[in-house]
Amino acid sequence: MFAKQSYGALLFAGAIAFGCQPPGANDASQAAAAADGLPGVDTNSLTRTERDAWAELVTEQLAPCQSIPKTIAECVRQNAPCAACKPAAEQLAQLVRRGKTKAQAEKAFRARFGQSGVLDVEIDGSPSKGPENAPITIVEWADFECGFCAKAAPLLDAAQKAYPDQIRLVFKQFPLAMHVHATQMAKLAVAAGNQGKFWETHGALFAGVGGSLDEAAIGNLAASLQLDKVKLLADMQAPETTARIDRDRAQADKLGLKGTPFIVINRRRFDFELFDLEEDLRPWLDVELLLTKAPTASP
């Protein structure tokens, strides 16, 4: 678990009610039929007990498209026009395979595909890389002195490089009070961004180059990144730099940040209590690309 300081393990949650379920959603015969499998959904690695648990989930949960009043199992079996149905069934199978309880699997399903809990995120001039019109926007709030943020940084960077025309990666500052040098590092990154070197500085700070960030260390970093040291130091002290950090922090507080990194993908929070960044990020992005390309009903 993590408090407002870091997440406890690299493993956007909005609990929702799907409303009334259609007649027969809990029918044991439907669950039994689903246990034998759904077209295109691989459940071969599940034990019989796990398959029964998965079948119960896909015959109880409604399809993640508001316009499709069917269960996930019915949606997949009937090839209904909801591009999220098959990915939803696959996600539930993966969760059961990992040993998640029914309640945990339902919570993760709702976080990923639910109709409520979608966040309004302001980009407002934050440093980014990737096309502004990319179908996927990943927004991360992070602290340069947070070890878990340092682990997440290369994973997010690799994802953006793997999908260079399809992902826009946006960074926002959230230095934690518990980290002695975090605010200074955030100011340095903002100031370097004024000289067009935010991402180079971002990489250097997460690589541990920043250290205590005394003037000598800042000078060495400025030299290595070909930054104007005088301007860099002046911009670090500028009121606009503090305002930028405060604005990022206020946005995250409003959205419910409880720890860093805080990641939002296409307005959905990647909840580290439910998902693992290393295991789940790429599948999440693949599904997101599928959903953004689908000419059918979407969540």
Reconstruct the topology from this structure.
Blueprint: H1 28-35, H2 48-60, H3 72-77, H4 85-97, H5 102-113, E1 128-129, E2 136-142, H6 147-162, E3 167-173, H7 182-193, H8 198-206, H9 215-224, H10 229-237, H11 239-255, E4 262-265, E5 268-269, H12 277-293
Parallel strand pairs: 2-3
Antiparallel strand pairs: 1-3, 2-4, 4-5
Helix pairs in contact: 1-2, 2-4, 4-5, 6-12, 7-8, 7-10, 7-11
List keywords for this structure.
299 residues, alpha+beta, five-stranded mixed beta sheet, disordered N terminus
Mean pLDDT: 86
Helical content (DSSP H or I, runs of 4+): 40-55%
If strands are numbered along the chain, what order do they take across the biggest sheet?
1-3-2-4-5
Q: Which blocks of ≥5 consecutive residues have pLDDT under 50?
A: 1-26, 294-298
Could you describe the largest sheet, including whether it forms a barrel? 5 strands, mixed
Number of domains: 2
Span from first to last CA?
29 Å
CATH architecture of the largest domain: 3-Layer(aba) Sandwich
* Cα shape: elongated
Strand content of the residues, in percent? 5-15%
How many β-strand stretches? 5
Superfamily (CATH H level) name of the largest domain? Glutaredoxin
Question: What does this entry show, briefly?
Answer:
The protein has twelve helices and five strands.
Task: Report on this structure.
The structure is a single chain. The chain is α+β, with helices and mostly antiparallel strands. The protein has two domains: 1-12 and 118-299, Glutaredoxin, CATH 3.40.30; 17-115. The protein is built from twelve helices and five strands. It has a five-stranded mixed β-sheet, sandwiched between helices. The chain is elongated. The two termini are 29 Å apart. Mean pLDDT is 86; it is low at 1-26 and 294-298.
